[in-house]
Amino acid sequence: MEQAGRSVRTRLRDRVAASDPGLLRLTAGLRTVGAIALALAVLALLGSDVKHLVAGAMSAMVATFAIREKQPGAQAVTLALGLPVALASVSVSALLTSRVVAGDAFFVVLIFCAVYSRRFGDRGTALGLIGFQVYFVSLFVGARTSALPGLWAAIAVAFACSALVRFAIVPATPARVLSLLRQAFRARLAQLISAQLELLDAGPDEIDRTLEHLRDGTARLHETALLIQSRLEEGTPDASTARLVQRRIADAEIAAERLGLLLLTARSAERADTLTLHLPGAPAPSVGSTPAPGEATAVLRRDLGALRALVLRPPAEARGTALSHLRNRLLGYRDEENLPEATPAVQDVFRGIGETARAVMGLRIALDGPQDESDDSPATARSREELDAEDAAIDAGEEAATEEEPTGLRRPTTRAAVQVAVGSSLAIVGGEFLSSQRWYWAVLTCWIVFLNTASTGEILVKGYRRLVGTMLGVVAGIVLAGLVGNHTWTAFGLVLLFIFAMFYTAPLSYTLMSFFVTAMLGLLYTLLHTYSMAVLVLRVEETALGAACGIIAAALVLPIRTDRRTNELLGTVLERLVDVTEGAVDQLSGGPAADLLDTARDLDQALGDLRGATQPLTHPITPLRARRNTAQYVVALLETCAYHARSLAATAELLPTHPSIAADPRLRGAVRRTVRNIEAIAARVADEDVRTEVETGPSIASLLEFEPGGVPRYGRITGRVLRHLERLDEAVVGLARPLGVSVATPKR
């Protein structure tokens, strides 16, 4: 019974970890709600009125979500600096209440400074955000000079409560967050293997749905790997540990994705295209009823289940149990041990299971420390020796070179500051025409649509989402205001619930977040006895006006068109792709060792930035369907290229420590055409007037010369490298057509 209860708790924990990696959303929601609730409790005990309760609650929310540093010490410093900034902001607002023109001018200057301060990193961003939001709070509660002492006290209490909740009640050290992210990686890895099991048994009428699950699982695993990458420096004790975890995460991710490809190939009539795993809605390959005779399929199903158990089972439960024997059997497939009678494609799947089992064992050692070796088979012992040799070869590496930053109006923060200042000025003027008392809602919307956006298209999509969420929130506010009536603490309870939902859903859906914000504001208006249907309608009007002003400013003042933004990011992705590919192949050809894992993660980060920038092009509301399809296709091709480049880098990283992997100088010549093609595409993207073309010709494998005496041209590892190079070359040629680069006809 106790074992069953622990199993249920473990499954529930894994589901939560997979749905919210690192519990980052849950932590943000609990911290914010906790800070607000504590501030309300303290202010209520001090006898504060509703206006000061609202000011304290909103200040506690700002003091909590504005802090972005990962280290507790840096967070404490920013929070301490934020308090005088908040007090100064509310004081200036109260002093300028009766001076409309001066107040509006100062507000515009404050907005400019708040956006410009992003160039100074997380602390500058936080202090700018606190200054702007507290000024907005003062406008919301109608701050006057006579009420300043009470507002100062409410804000001070709010900041103190925020600090108490952050550092004592809901603490989250970098090491703890990284530990939770690693748990999420395991859970998502297990989910991906479950999707692969689903693929194994899927019939022809189920293959499309199953492939979507496989794509989602692959993307979610990659997302978690990137989150871990961003936390390694702060969450690990030294650089060597960080690099060890980085390598093991990369190994597990690549092995799991390759296993999915091998399984898809085994289910297909021909070798599966890697693009199928990255392009949403890509046509599924034709599949048969089973990938192999019944006995081999049953063994494959059993071994995929065993692999999933290896991922999820705690290390203590793997000692002296059947699980260690399962691990030994799976690792034996790497050495061709006990391979079932089956087609070569199915046997490749078993080998892929063995490679994934090795990656999982390496991940366990890196995350949980040394494992019990008493039940090791010879194959497991060899895998362990390989991992130990790799661990010993890891060093801190070199610092990455810093790129030259743009200056003046070319600097993104300067451009955004000018744009939002102009947009806010328009919003103030237009908002005053709509309402002399609630005009600041338009300014708030204009400010918000510029946050975390870099192009006109992104601002347009964000403004649209905020307007939709606001309209739905108005409807909810009308209903809730009627239900709550004059029950103050019931309203505050619902406010806390909506704030938690707002922060928990923010990374998932901006529309949902806007809905909860507006519903919460309807309740706050009820508490301040300023609620009416006209106020909520005005909220929609001011939101629409603010979004329109933001879009106008982005389109007319130092505009960054979506095409220009995506082309810049596309050029960066292609540059990183060349770096990874050339570096990996050079090392595999006998060149010096290089820091390939960091280079590969730079490629992943650049691709993630591009994926985000193309959202305006791929959004469902876009009327340009052909353009949307092209953007999705290009991003999917680039994800395919990144997968093969990561795989090459991972293989090259093994070269110094694995005697079974030998350098092959012929590989250097095999990659030259691919690199030239990437550079040709990059030149075309950078300048549309440049006329370039990509080359096609014989397959990569055929570029290698025959060995004398009938000796095979290359071994198994070199063959795998060639397959990755072949698919990379095909994907790069595929990129040429949608990007307007001509394809040269092969010379005969």
Verbal overview:
The chain is 72% helix and 1% strand. By secondary structure, the protein is mainly α. The chain has a two-stranded parallel sheet. Helix 27 (716-736) links the parallel strand 1 and strand 2 (742-743). Helix 16 (440-450) crosses helix 17. The protein is globular and about 85 Å long. The relative contact order is 0.07.
Write the layout of secondary structure elements.
Blueprint (H helix, E strand, L loop, with lengths): L1 H18 L4 H22 L4 H16 L6 H24 L4 H17 L4 H21 L6 H22 L4 H28 L5 H29 L3 H29 L26 H19 L9 H11 L11 H25 L9 H16 L18 H23 L5 H11 L5 H29 L3 H18 L4 H18 L5 H24 L5 H27 L7 H18 L1 H4 L6 H30 L11 H5 L1 H15 L6 E2 L21 H21 L5 E2 L5
Parallel strand pairs: 1-2
Low-confidence stretches: 1-6, 396-403
Kindly state the percentage of residues in helix. over 70%
Rounded average pLDDT: 82
Report strand %. under 5%
The gist of it:
This protein is mainly α. It has 27 helices and two strands. Strand 1, helix 27 (716-736) and strand 2 form a beta-alpha-beta unit.
